[in-house]
Write a structure and sequence with these properties.
Elements lengths: L24 E2 L13 H11 L3 E8 L4 H9 L2 H6 L3 E8 L7 H11 L3 E5 L11 H6 L6 E3 L6 H10 L2 E5 L8 H11 L3 E4 L11 H10 L4 H8 L3 H5 L2
Parallel strand pairs: 1-2, 2-3, 3-4, 4-5, 5-6, 6-7
Helix pairs in contact: 8-9
Length: about 240
């Protein structure tokens, strides 16, 4: 296929840098519907060229645009099918007051969202304390993005409620990846590897996803498990 031209050759990397997974997903991306650079369809096309099987479009959402985002991204399902990418219509609840997160997440699902991501307590933004806890205890939340120095009790709650914690390649947010891996491993919480894409260059290649997983402190076996995640299982609660 033409999209393979110019891609890094895994054989030229050390063994630890070679991807050993066959599926590719990204559960956290942004488009021009919020603060991203690309239209949803162009993002889908670029993901297809890189070999992605599943892409969630999760633009920043609050009370002002929740319904619009779900409807707008949903209109791109046919384009996604043409590009052979499984599109997950989603939102990233961003700086929503913690007491409102459950209702917003529930409403997103009612409107037809496939996935709800919550903008977690990253160490590089003034996210309201309690956001992580609200997300980890909500049955309608699927992924807690860049959770920062998340409390151990919230990690346990995430495991109990089927909320995955994110390992991210996003600059700044990724400062606490190692901590998230450690507490997630200890609690037995599901981990996902996402890009938080805003620009074309943010989408990760298969090799980069592997390096991000290993660099965060996951073992090769844990990296294979995280990168080969059964998305349907994650979303079935």
């Amino acid at each position: 296929m033409g999209w393979e031209q110019g891609r890094p050759d895994p054989e030229g990397c050390p063994r630890s840098c070679r991807p050993e997974v066959t599926t590719m997903y990204d559960l956290h991306t942004h488009t021009s519907l919020s603060d991203g650079e690309l239209l949803p369809t162009e993002l889908l096309r670029r993901a297809a060229v890189l070999g992605y099987d599943t892409l969630a479009i999760t633009d920043h959402a609050d009370a002002s645009n929740l319904a619009h985002l779900v409807e707008a991204v949903g209109r791109c399902r046919e384009s996604a099918r043409c590009y052979c990418v499984d599109l997950l219509v989603g939102v990233e609840l961003t700086h929503v007051p913690p007491p409102l997160i459950p209702a917003f997440a529930r409403e997103a699902k009612r409107l037809g969202a496939d996935i709800v991501v919550v903008h977690g307590e990253t160490v590089v933004e003034p996210v309201t304390p309690g956001t992580n806890h609200a997300a980890c205890t909500c049955e309608y939340v699927d992924v807690l993005a860049h959770p920062g120095l998340i409390a151990v009790e919230d990690v346990r709650a995430a495991r109990e409620h089927g909320v995955a914690l994110e390992i991210t390649s996003r600059a700044g947010h990724n400062r606490t990846n190692g901590y998230v891996v450690r507490v997630g491993r200890e609690a037995g919480c599901r981990l996902v590897v996402d890009s938080d894409t805003h620009a074309p260059s943010d989408l990760m290649s298969k090799e980069t996803r592997w390096v991000v997983a290993l660099g965060a402190g996951l073992t090769e076996a844990e990296s294979r498990e995280a990168l080969s995640l059964d998305i349907n299982r994650l979303l079935q609660k």
